[in-house]
Amino acid sequence: MSKARTLCVIDDDNIYQFTVKHFIKNEKLADEIITFADGEEAINYFTENINKPEALPDIILLDINMPIMDGWQFLDEYEKIVDKLPKQITIYMVSSSVDHEDLKKARGINLISNYFTKPLKVADYYLMLNA
Amino acid sequence: MPTIGIITSVPDKGIVDVNPAICKMLGYARKELLTKKWTDITHPDDVDLDVGYFSKILNNEIDSYTIEKRYIHKNDTIIWIELSVECIKNDDDEIDFFVALIKNIDDRKGAENRLQAELDKTKALSQNLENRNKHLREFAHITSHNLRAPVSTMASLLDMLISENDQEMRLTIIEKIEEVNSQLLETLDSLGEALEIQEGQNLEFKHADIDYKLKRTIKFLQTDIKANKVKISTDFSRAPTIYVYPGYMQSILLNLISNAINYRSKERDPIIHISSDTDENYTYIHVTDNGLGIDLERHADKVFGLYKTFHRNPKAKGVGLFMVKNQVEAMDGEISVESEVDKGTTFTLKFPKQ
Fold first, then answer.
1. CB burial class (10 A; 0-12, 13-18, 19+) of residue B41?
2. Total domain count, chain A
3. Where in the sequence is the domain holding A26, given as residue range(s)?
4. In B, which residues are within 8 Å of A67 by CB distance?
């Protein structure tokens, strides 16, 4: 790890969050992890901290199916504030969905760097965090 | 003998001549037919159509017309005919008499009607298939989202367990595995229940008394209703009964009313109004509350999905409306929702009358 990095997990499954946190900590792949249970919590946090680069993550792991505001709706809202963000943030979509439609939709969205299917494998973590 | 019937009539006098073909077609003797008015032998539903064209002739708008309509045979059977009416005018351009040429098209109409009936059957069949297809797609979606998620989490947890040496951490992981496992079992139970509902082909339908069903439902919820000061009002005067499988009806009402209570607004005492009405073919039940409402712009496509929730409410599991929809559809009904955030929600159930 060369520089301090913050990972953000947006997912309503707290056990999935637990597995990600555990793996990242063990492998020391990030310095800090912030988590949100749905898109709205995350977008509110981003908007509140839009002038604080140190509070914002470098990488986002975004789930699709979430209550209140799902992954797609989060991206719609994120697009509105992306130009005001003080740093480059990489977004990966991470979902249990193997639905072809979801994959196609994700490919069509420029904000998404890549799409990963749960369960995340060791190689996936390295692809995401060393990229 | 010619097969084309001919009727000649004169203004003010009516039928003055008929040929043997029309007598045979309608089963009357020539004498009998000469005493009839054309409205006597025309199917009552087709009189207006004919009068419409005939008055155009009288108004000099047209000289002739051809329509398909029904005659009634002396033995009361219906015959489809093609009627061509032409008016013959004298030198002063006044109507002299009318000639009506009548062709029996009953065979063709019969074939057409049989074809239409076949088409309707095919349509119903393909509608049925389409519905089944939709259900299958829904289930594929559920498998993809609701089953793959816990299974993949389970896989991650097992990986963790294998490489973890810390005893305390291992116990935590095992606890999580148990938690996911029970989630998974719950999902499978819900799916099994939904499948059972969809397969429920032999539901016994009855004209259920809505008020009675509701009172029984309210009994189950008495504690919640008292604790939250819920006011329930009803109006079933327009449609006191509904043709359904009573077991599902009760479960649907239970789900909708307990939802209305669970998603009440903290700003006001909950009021739930349940009413029914009816039109020619359907009976409707409306369940209206003054609760939190659902942001339909955001969630319209998910309201009735499995494990979809819209509020940060720990009680929300996202099963209720999914089951309601399955039960409603198993009874050939439809459910729809209207809602305004912080104003309230109305669910409308629609069931065929028979």
1. buried
2. 1
3. 6-130
4. 308-312, 316, 318
Residues B194 and B322 sit within 8 Å (Cβ to Cβ): yes
Nearest-angstrom CA–CA distance, A56 and A95:
22
Residue A32 identity = E
Q: What is the percent of chain A where pLDDT is above 70?
A: 96
Question: Which residue stretches of chain B have pLDDT < 50?
Answer: none
- Measured between beta carbons, the chain B residues lying within 8 angstroms of A65 are 145, 149
Q: What is the pLDDT of residue B316?
A: 56
Q: Could you tell me if residue A1 is inside a domain? A: no
C-beta neighbour count of A23 within 10 angstroms: 17
* pTM, two decimal places: 0.59
Q: Residue A120: which of B156, B180, B316 has the nearest Cβ?
A: B156
Contacts of B63 (CB under 8 A, 6+ apart): B57, B86, B87, B89
A6-22 pLDDT, tens digit per residue, is 999 999 888 999 999 99
- Tell me, what's the pLDDT at B221? 85
B153 with A22: Cβ contact below 8 A: no
Q: What is the pLDDT of residues B251-309, one digit of tens each?
A: 889 889 988 988 899 889 999 999 999 998 999 999 999 998 888 877 766 777 766 66
When CB atoms are compared, the residue of B144, B298, B310 closest to A97 is: B144
Predicted-complex ipTM score: 0.76
Which domains are present in chain B? 5-104 (3.30.450.20), 123-199 (1.10.287), 206-352 (3.30.565.10)
Query: Residue A56 falls within a domain, yes or no?
Result: yes
Beta bridge partners of B270: none
CB-based contact (8 Å) between A96 and chain B? yes
Find, in chain B, the residue whose alpha carbon is nearest to that of A71: B298
d(CA A21, CA A23) in angstroms, rounded, equals 6
Q: Give, for B97, the enclosing helix (H) or strand (E).
A: strand B95-104
CATH number at residue A36: 3.40.50.2300
Cβ contacts from A onto B, under 8 A: 60
In a domain, A85, yes or no: yes
SS3 B85: strand
Q: What percent of chain B has pLDDT over 90?
A: 43
Angle B210-B212-B217 (CA atoms, 0-180°, nearest 5)? Answer: 95
